[in-house]
Specification:
The complex is a heterodimer.
Chain A lengths: L11 H11 L4 E5 L2 E8 L8 E8 L5 E6 L37 H18 L15 H7 L1
Antiparallel strand pairs in A: 1-2, 2-3, 3-4
Chain B lengths: L4 H16 L3 H19 L11 E5 L1 H4 L11 E8 L9 H13 L2 H4 L2 E3 L4 E5 L3 E10 L8 E4 L6 E4 L1 H12 L25 H16 L10 H11 L6 H16 L9 E2 L2 E5 L2 H5 L1 H23 L2 H12 L2 H18 L4 E3 L5 E2 L5 E3 L13
Parallel strand pairs in B: 2-5
Antiparallel strand pairs in B: 1-2, 3-4, 4-5, 5-6, 6-7, 8-9, 10-11, 10-12
Helix pairs in contact in B: 1-7, 1-13, 7-8, 7-9, 8-9, 9-11, 11-12, 12-13
Chain lengths: ~150, ~375
């Protein structure tokens, strides 16, 4: 697929066409100035299937939420790389602009985030990097505290 | 990377077993030690020399199904010391004493040796317990059949450790046409971890489950050779470890369910040798095993339907915390592919892969977030 790299921001409709074409498991709800895409991502064959919601208005970065299964803390520890409202924090400031296609950034970053989220739940370690770094609590220390 | 459930599960089980089994470097050490002991037993000046002692491995070490016991570092490595004696002329106790005293003549072994019920143990602290069982050829000679001391050290009983190894290997190779040449019994080459068969992996996992399930009542646990023999008999040739384990467990539940009497398990290479003496002598242990096995099979089927952290929790419950290390290894591959710019996400699913077909590259990004929200 040829992608035109222009300097102008993508319209909502353009973003939606790209997203629904590349990721047909998503559907869209359109309202004035705001599109919400809902669909599933499963980061690996052994992973849960996550229902994602991506809300996008021109002028704001896409907001990505996991609808189901509900994201869980791990023994009381906050989920890494999320905002206070629980949405996923997939890039640093400036890491996404309106010239980017949601379909080739946000979706893939979300799948990657989910993979590391699951590993973090299972092993206690966040292997996805990021800033600020997530300190791996020593498993032994956690067990002793229980 | 893998895209099917079975492929990824097989890999997870494989990684788990690699954490549980004898490490490759320890295997090489064991080989050196074993050759040294064998050399000492047959050296000029040895009282055993006239009996042409032959030492060869048996048990999990011989068939490639080692699993580190819970709560200690040392692996159990079993060996046979075969002596060309007319067994009926000797008490088992006498032959065992011969082996022990020869080992005691060696300054180093003297400090490592311990006499157990019917074998001699050399302890390599932090590494192995090398248990040496004396054996004599059967009479009339019958292939690789031998006589070994019985558990009470009263009589010679029939056994066939080499025959068992051959039998197990033939069962193990059902999933592919495999030739095994009979060697002069050097230690079996440490299989490349990828080279373990589905049956070997299944046996390791079942033994590990047994160790955990019986950790509060270890004396009631079935011995490894019984569990391994049942698994090998129940194995039907599946090429996937997960599928092999499923068919083995289902078959064993069918075999052990609804019985009043224990299942007798004989050495397939020597029908005179009853392996399941414990069940015969204490039938309650058999019924306990049947019950726990049913629970294992049920839980395993739940695992097959589970995903995500719920699946991980079941696997850890059944096979221990090494499963977490296995998950970590899989995640490290994802992280590594991502670092190299090779990570992609499948279109339509999101499944992370390095395969370029029907997938889109994961562009570099740095996850961010509110550092101070908790």
């Amino acid at each position: 697929m040829v992608m035109l790299i222009t300097g102008s921001p993508r319209s909502l409709a353009e973003q939606s066409v790209m997203l629904l074409t590349l990721h047909p498991q998503f559907t869209v709800e359109r309202s004035v100035g705001r599109y919400v895409w809902t669909g599933t991502l499963q980061p690996s064959a052994l992973s849960d299937v996550y229902t994602m919601r991506i809300a996008y208005s021109l002028g704001q970065a896409p907001i990505v939420d996991v609808v189901a299964p509900v994201l869980q803390r791990r023994y009381g520890e906050a989920i890494p790389h999320t905002y206070a409202d629980g949405s996923l924090c997939l890039f640093e400031p400036g890491g996404w602009t309106q010239v980017d296609w949601i379909a080739t950034t946000t979706i893939q970053w979300s799948a990657t985030w989910l993979a590391f989220y699951e590993t973090w739940h299972i092993t206690g370690e966040w292997l996805g990097g990021g800033d600020p770094p997530v300190a791996a609590r020593s498993e032994r220390r956690r067990r002793r505290r229980r | 990377m893998y895209t099917t459930h079975t492929e990824q599960l097989d890999d997870l089980l494989d990684l788990t077993c690699r954490e549980l089994q004898l490490p490759t470097s320890w295997h090489d050490e064991a080989e050196q030690h074993y050759h040294a002991v064998a050399a000492w037993l047959e050296a000029p000046g040895s009282a055993l020399r006239a009996f042409r002692p032959e030492m060869y491995p048996q048990g999990s070490f011989a068939i490639g199904t080692t699993v580190r016991p819970i709560g200690r570092d040392e692996f159990d490595l079993d060996f046979v010391c075969q002596l060309a004696l007319e067994y009926w002329r000797y008490q088992p106790e006498q032959v065992l004493a011969l082996v022990e005293s020869r080992l005691r003549e060696h300054e180093t072994y003297r400090g490592m040796i311990e006499r157990l019920k019917r074998c001699v143990r050399l302890t390599y602290a932090g590494r192995f317990y090398m248990d040496i069982l004396p054996a004599c050829p059967d009479s009339p000679p019958n292939g690789t059949c031998v006589r070994v001391p019985d558990r009470a050290l009263r009589e010679w009983k029939a056994s066939n450790p080499r025959g068992y190894v051959s039998w197990f290997r033939s069962r193990s190779g059902l999933y592919l046409a495999q030739q095994f040449t009979r060697s002069v019994d050097p230690l079996p080459a440490q299989e490349d971890a990828d080279g373990k068969s589905p049956l070997q992996r299944s046996a390791q996992l079942i033994k590990r489950w047994r160790d955990l399930a019986y950790r509060r009542d270890p004396k009631a646990a079935p011995c490894s050779i019984v569990v391994t023999t049942l698994a090998a008999q129940a194995y039907s040739g599946k090429a996937s470890t997960a599928e092999a384990l499923t068919t083995i467990l289902d078959e064993l539940v069918r075999l052990t369910g609804g019985r009043t009497d224990p299942v007798p398990v004989f050495n397939p290479a020597n029908p005179e040798e009853l392996l399941s003496e414990q069940w015969r002598d204490q039938p309650a242990t058999f019924h306990l095993f049947a019950e726990r096995l049913r629970a294992l099979a049920a839980r395993w089927h739940e695992a097959l339907d589970a995903r995500g952290p719920s699946l991980a929790a079941i696997l850890e419950e059944l096979f221990g915390e090494e499963t977490r290390t296995a998950y970590r290894r899989q995640a490290e591959r994802v992280a590594s592919a991502r670092e190299d710019g090779r990570l992609r996400a499948g279109l339509g699913s999101g499944i992370l892969t390095t395969s370029p077909s029907r997938s889109a590259i994961v562009r570099p990004t740095t996850f961010h977030g509110d550092a101070d929200h908790r």
